């Protein structure tokens, strides 16, 4: 695989996975714009592993605290002591993950690639950008991540189902749902990124199982390189986004999505016979 293709795939997955701009849409557009052949399951697994390791490492304190809270809960429950906030955060993440796992299985089994058209990507990119803008501008910003209720976590999980449509953005739609609940920007992003861990892990396991069935081990060295590159790009993207949201809004991401969505819709309707 050419170095340029490896760099492009790693950059697209690593950067767009956690920003509210839709990684699935960009990964669909890359081969259409470049003419490159499909990278294959092994490379798909590699970029998922790289981004998964990045978000786990970036939030290592949160992850360690939640793991520790599990063991502490066994000691606290018999004495009826209140459980740690980290334990409840973990439960909320589980509740928010269940809907997309169920919906993902159904869509993958029965609908396949039904939503991968350029028209669908254009509309979802544009419409959900506007929804994020509305949520970000109209909602209060005084609640923290621990203020997310069980009901609120389930609502975020239901919103996350929409991310199964390319162009929606898993990060974007979960941040939108959190902002509608008044969660401040950095904590909305934090919950979204923590929520990405089980989702990316599940997707990676599914792709790994498919890879095992196919028994295709080609490009193994390239896969290791791409995993490392996607890890680096993802760590950089997460760090910059969290730094930006400390003082600023989601507006730059919204502007980018509006421009991208409008461009895709222009191509779709202006050149209906154009093989994009």
Throw out a few tags for this protein.
0% strand, 11 helices, 276 residues, mainly alpha
Topology overview:
Elements: H1 3-16, H2 23-34, H3 41-58, H4 60-76, H5 85-110, H6 118-138, H7 150-161, H8 170-180, H9 185-214, H10 220-244, H11 251-270
Helix pairs in contact: 1-2, 1-3, 1-10, 3-9, 3-10, 4-5, 5-7, 5-9, 6-8, 6-11, 7-8, 8-9
What's the gist of this structure?
75% of the residues lie in helices and 0% in strands.
| Poorly predicted parts | none
Strand content: under 5%
**Mean residue pLDDT:** 86
Give the count of structural domains.
Answer: 1
Based on CA atoms alone, the radius of gyration comes out at: 19 Å
How far the N terminus sits from the C terminus, by CA atoms, comes to: 23 Å
- Percent in helix: over 70%
Major sheet description: none
Q: Could you say which overall geometry the principal axes of the C-alpha atoms support?
A: globular
Number of strands: 0
Order of helices and strands: HHHHHHHHHHH
Please work out how many helical segments DSSP would assign: 11
Q: Which structural class do the helices and strands define?
A: mainly alpha
Task: Describe the protein in words.
This protein is mainly α. It has one domain (3-270). It is built from 11 helices and no strands. It has helices at 3-16, 23-34, 41-58, 60-76, 85-110, 118-138, 150-161, 170-180, 185-214, 220-244, 251-270. Helix 1 (3-16) packs across helix 3 and helix 7 packs antiparallel against helix 8 (170-180). The longest helix is centred in the C-terminal third of the chain and has 30 residues, at 185-214. It starts with a helix and ends in a 6-residue tail after the last helix.
